[in-house]
Amino acid sequence: PLLRQVGSDVLGADWRINIELKQLPAPMQDFPVVERVLTLIKKMGITAESIILSSFNLAWVQQVRSLRPDIEVHAVVGYSKVKPIVWEPLSFETYNARYTRVSASKIRELSARGVAINVWAVNQEKVMKRFIRAGAAGIITDFPQRLRRLLNRGL
User: Fold this and answer.
1) What share of the chain is helix, strand, coil (3-state, %, to 5)?
2) Rounded CA gap, 60 and 34, in Å?
């Protein structure tokens, strides 16, 4: 969906949305994504408390953090389905990691260092349970009703 559509749904709602900033293909790769998104957010009256901005493009995440330190940012990691995630240096407070590229022990280790790890896109309840037990800060899923059911059961 377009940011304008989602933004109007968020206004006045009591929840947050994660807006993932994505790389544009040629010939638009030099389009000022961060500046345009921040301008639109301001124009629409979307509050910093109602959004999170995230991206695989870590320079963009840093740019958002510099321009709007009041907006929470998440670095998205694990683009490759096979290459390991390079965690160091830990430049951000929160990372959204491909769940198949991060272990429960890594989540515990990074959490102990004050780094929050969200995992994506976790759709199987068995895997959700594993990450809940590991202390993942958040689980990004296509099936929030499954996750809600697990959390309501006290897992």
Assistant:
1) 40, 20, 40
2) 6
